[in-house]
Amino acid sequence: MQTVSSKKGxxxxxGFIDIFKNIYTISVxxxxxxxxxxxxxxxxxxxxxQENNYKMVLSxxxxxxxxxxxxxxxxxxxxxxxxxxxxxxxxxxxGFTLGTFTGYFRDRNSTKNITFPYKQYAKHYVLGIxxxxxxxx
Length: 137
Known about the structure:
Layout: E1 15-17, E2 23-25, H1 30-51, E3 55-58, E4 68-71, E5 77-89, E6 92-93, E7 121-131
Parallel strand pairs: 5-7
Antiparallel strand pairs: 1-2, 3-4, 4-5, 5-6
């Protein structure tokens, strides 16, 4: 995908820059990489919402489900969550976390750690992103 990598496969983001124009390279911290991927994909997701007349509601907290709630003109809600992980080998990934079974999955009316009660969503989509760390497999 040209948004996050070049045709050669190099990441388009190389680091962070501060107000003094110092550049800090990206670490292999999975939370940092995940956030960069989300930020880079956000304009594409926003364009999708505009083209399809969806209102976008972002989660209030980092650990809320879903990352984005799309609401159409009739009020129908669609959950959209982004998850990322890295490859351990060509056939194995580190794993994804998909939420807690003790909360809104059991109590579909719950508003704990979720933007709208689970039962209000007509559909649920998860975008799974798998990336390769900068090392040989």
